[in-house]
Amino acid sequence: MPTGSEIRRTFLTFFEKKGHREVHSSSLVPANDPTLLFTNAGMNQFKDVFLGLEKRDYNRATTSQKCVRAGGKHNDLENVGFTNRHHTFFEMLGNFSFGDYFKKDAIAYAWELFTSPYWFNLPKEKLYATIFKGENGVPRDAEAYDLWLSQGVPKERIYEFGSKDNFWQMGDTGPCGPCSEIHYDMGVIASELGHGTTAPACEFGCDCGRYVELWNLVFMQFDRDATGTLSLLPKPSIDTGLGLERMAAVLQGVISNYDTDLFTPLIKRAAELTGASLKQELDKEAKTKSAASLRVIADHSRAATFLISDGVIPLNEGRGYVLRKIIRRAITHGRLLGQTKPFLHQMVFAVRDLMQDAYPELKESTDRVSKTVLAEETRFAHTLDAGLRELQEEFGDLGLTRAAIFAAKKGLSLNLGPAVELLPSTPQSEAKIIAENIFHSDELEDEFLKQPYIYRLPGAIAFKLYDTFGLQRDFIEDACRDAGVIFDATGFDRAMEEQRTRARASWKGAVKQTANPVYQQLPKSEFEGYRRTRSDNCAVLAIIKGGQGVQELKPGEKGEIILDHTPFYAESGGQVGDRGLLYADDHNTVVAEVTNTYAPIQGVRAHQVIAKQPIRVGDKLDAVVNADLRAATMRNHTATHLLHAGLREVLGKHVKQAGSLVAPNHLRFDFSHFTGVEDEELQDIEDIINKEVLVNEKIEVIENVPIDVAVNEYHAMALFGEKYGDRVRVIKIGDFSTELCGGTHTSQTGEIGLIKILKEGSVSSGVRRIEAVTGEGSLHHFRKDHELEEVVAGLTSREADAPPAEVLRAELERKDAEIKRLTRELDQVRMKSASSSAANLGDKIKNIGGVSVLAFRSDDLNRSQLRSLGDQLREKIGSPSVVVVGTVTANRPAVNVSATATLLSANQIIGPIAALIGGKGGGRDDFAEAGGKDPSGIDAALNETYVVVERLLANPKG
Ligand code: ATP
Ligand code: MG
Known about the structure:
Helix content: 40-55%
Distance between the termini: 83 Å
Mean pLDDT: 86
Number of strands: 35
Bound molecules: adenosine-5'-triphosphate, magnesium ion
Number of helices: 26
Low-confidence stretches: 415-426, 506-512
């Protein structure tokens, strides 16, 4: 029986023998393709080739491509664990023709590989083919039908379907065409697939899992324009996708992908790590449930490992969010199996052991990957706790709501304050607490508790817990069951669907267009900017204005100019495009100002210009880059490489570039790292890289290196999400730094002058950003610093050699202490004046039913001062009494109540008073306090005291 690795190899070898170039899988993070969340098919890395934006030196290719379908248009996340054939991460085997062979060969190759005794040797009678039946004005694919027949597929096993299954398109516009699929009859007994034991055998088309789609052959035959009209592509192309895991199941004679050698070691390890296999006494339901959980863990650990290895990190949006969901789903399934400690980070090594031969990048990345997973496991444990607390509070709210409704029916006004304070646990216990604390009447209490109640956790709230707190649905359902609350599944699904629609909409934004034909027909312009900043006699090959090719640009007009050779660097790899001037062939007259340079398609350099003189196609021009700006940019670019290497040296090898901007005036560098960089670390980094500058190391540029050599022999660092060709350019700075890079660099490190790090901060969780300057930028920076120093010197008296930062800090600390002392004094004075103004209170104290009642206002007191004023007054007046003091401080009103009368509770008195200052209050029987929003109500609130006391004494329970 062939192993998964052997099947992968066999596929690639078969197509190599048919003249295909074996191309390595591209990253799961699509290079320069904002339309795509993750690489989800073999064709992704060739998209620009199919669109005519890029040319390769081969026109047949074969790959085993890492794919993730867990977000965006293709999302199989929720299927995983419950079907035998869907994964979040899987490998897609494919063969591609770029305008070379078409349908006939594609079908013949597929059939040969599948059925030939030398290759996969599948039994022909178990194979089915599908074709496009014709729909929406696109004709039936009769050609494919005949081709399948001619391979010997009987017509009973060729099925025809519509656009949904058998028509493929890259986007709303662009290449599209019919497809044909090959399916396999797993021949399983129906009962195993949920038909029930007595059901008759099902037929092709049944989605029970008996018939499994293995291979999809796409025939890119049309180009769709913006109006929806199809035209025939001059060079039709082929794109196919065969799921490796499904092929392994078929060739290894098992029904489920999870029973193949690509998964069994992972499932075993997952069982060990979660302790699942140790549970002997599983009943039938639990057994299937735990099997599903193990599959989910096995699947998700593959996805997480490969995604993180390719540079994705757990975040709250975009790709990182999907990764986070995957990891958290795996952890939750671990918890369902009883594992509450971190375990998933260990799975990473199992994935590496299984897959490193096919994907050597795992060898280098697993330590970093495992750390990232562990960090997320720890973080999630916290979130889970917070989420569970939130859930409990929701349950508590359900109880409160019910009490409020009951009270409203009885015509009671309820002060829910105290009940909210009590930690809710379940709606029932909540209800009991409320009953005891609020109703103050045994009959009401009984009546309330006897009421039939049905609690339902609203779907939208459950979804919020799922979405923001990461509580998995199973988890919430279980908790609801335990608490006797109904889980609103319909509402939950609706909320989920709404969120999906939103997510989809936000990823739709940029649809890639077929390249503007104006650019497609051009030969590549030769780039001379590595060696010089001026090129003479450059021929104007084309002029583009408003997306159209034109013959001439008039003075004052904006447009793009393509030259046959140019020294202008087109924006890429973070380095900004060059600016400069174009001169007429008299070498003197400026004909245009170049404001930027970019590459609309690979190899073509477009100069964005404002014309000063008429420019025509065929003119000869001198192209002159602004050399000062370029030199400043080069300094920053070389400094970026030094910084990257310095960060790895000081912080560790997990640091990888996550993005960069190299401009003339500064550089910005984003990198993966889990915590902030300490000041001392930053200084170390700055020291190390400036040492490299001072030794004036030569920068070696090695051109045209095969990518394998660059990575494996030079150990050049390749970047995430960057697209590299077969041959690359390597920038080597002594033994310190080696990177793949197409940018422009200084020839010696000394030219950089000095690198000054200005800022370090967080971009998103796990990604940090450093901003720095070099050369003249550093000079400006130090000049500013010097000015500051002069100011400090002017403000303080300091020793000549004391560092100004410390002097300034000491000075500010001194002033701070002074302010604190003065504030304290002011407070004391205020308190004193409050106490003395309370000296003659005689007329304010009223005797109500034998209780001395006093309401008193004194402004500008803080909470504790207010409290102590209350205490003073209460002591002065004696018992039984009610003392209410109020204040308005910084425009916020506050009151507190002390009560020493047996029949009066401070907690009852505070409510109506607080209401008048727009607040709520609570407390105990002897003391309660409240803050409010409306300072204008303070006097009315204080006067209310007398009224409330009178009312309460008349009717103690009300
Ligand atoms: P299905 O309908 O079974 O989900 P699909 O139509 O989405 O498949 P394609 O987009 O045509 O599949 O992808 C090509 C091949 O990749 C499929 O024939 C299948 O073998 C494999 N494949 C697709 N999705 C997955 C997945 N989630 N897990 C494993 N293999 C997959
Ligand atoms: Mg699918």
